Amino acid sequence: MRTPIFIALLMAAASGGCKARPAAVETKVATAPAAPEVIAPPEAPYIHSIPETMKQEAASRPDGTPRAEDLIEAAKKKGIAFAEPRQVLANKAGAKFCSMTSSPTGLEISVCEYAGEADAKQGHDFSLKAFGSIPNRDLYINRKTVLTVLRGQSTPPIEAEAKQA
Predict the structure, then answer these.
(1) Dist CA 106 CA 151 (whole Å)
(2) 9-35 burial string, b = 16+ CB within 10 Å, else e?
(3) Which SS3 state, helix, strand or coil, does residue 149 take?
(4) Per-residue DSSP letter, 19
(5) 5-14, 63-72, 122-131: lowest mean pLDDT where?
(6) What is the dihedral sign for C-alpha 45, 109, 106, 132?
(7) Which pTM value belongs to this model?
(8) What b/e sequence results for 100-122 when a residue is b if at least 16 CB atoms lie within 10 Å of its CB, and e otherwise?
(9) Burial bucket for residue 158 (CB in 10 Å: 0-12, 13-18, 19+)
(10) 3-state DSSP: the chain helix, strand, coil percent, rounded to 5?
(11) Using H for helix, E for strand and C for coil, what is the string for 73-142?
(12) Distance between CA atoms of residues 108 and 125, nearest Å
C-alpha cells in the first residue's frame, strides 16, 4: 500500500503540483519620527490666578541685582523711546520677577530677576533651549538678572537701538 502513495507524491512533485514556497520577502516598516523634545520650564510654585501670581512676584523681587526698571531707564537715557514697561509672568521662566517693553521701531526687551545667580543661569539656558530658533534674539546675564533683546526685524534703526540697549 505504500507504493500507490509514494507514486502519487512522486507524480505530484514531477508535475509541479508541489511547489517550493517562495522565500519570505523582507518588508521594512516605517517608523514614526521621534517626538520633539519637550522642554520643561524650571520648577515654579503654583498659584491659582495670574493676578495673584503677579502680585506675589512683584512683592518678592530679589536684592543685589540690576532691577528691570533700572535697565529700561538706562536704555531710555541712551535715546531709545521705550514704552512704559509692563510686568509679565515670571514663574514660567523660573524667575522671581519679569517685565518687558518695546520701542516704536520694534526693538523689544525683557528683563527677568532671579533668586540667585545659578537660577539666572538656569533661566538663561532654558530660554536659549526653548526659544533658540527665534532669530535676532540675544540674552545677557548680569548677576541675578537676564536681559533679552529681541529685534523683530533686522533693520538699521533696530540694530542701532539694540547696540545701545
Answers:
(1) 7
(2) eeeeeeeeeeeeeeeeeeeeeeeeeee
(3) strand
(4) -
(5) 5-14
(6) negative
(7) 0.68
(8) bbbbebebbbbbbbbbeeebbeb
(9) buried
(10) 35, 20, 45
(11) HHHHHCCCCCCCCEEECCHHHCCCEEEEEECCCCEEEEEEECCCHHHHHHHHHHHHHHHCCCCCEEEEEE
(12) 20
Closest CA to 118 of 126, 130, 106, 110: 126
Only one residue has cell 524667575, namely 95
* Distance separating alpha carbons of residues 9 and 13, to the nearest angstrom: 6
Stated length of the chain: 165
State residue 87's pLDDT score.
Answer: 96
Tracing cell 539666572 back to the chain, one arrives at: 120
- According to DSSP, the residues that pair with 114 across neighbouring strands are none
Sheet containing 97-102: give its strands across: 86-88, 97-102, 107-113, 145-151, 137-142
* Contact yes or no for 117/143 (Cβ under 8 A): yes
Query: What would the pLDDT profile of 42-71 be if each residue is shown by its tens digit?
Result: 555 555 688 999 999 999 999 999 998 998
Percentage of residues of the chain with pLDDT beyond 70: 70
C-alpha–C-alpha distance, residues 80 and 15, integer Å: 95
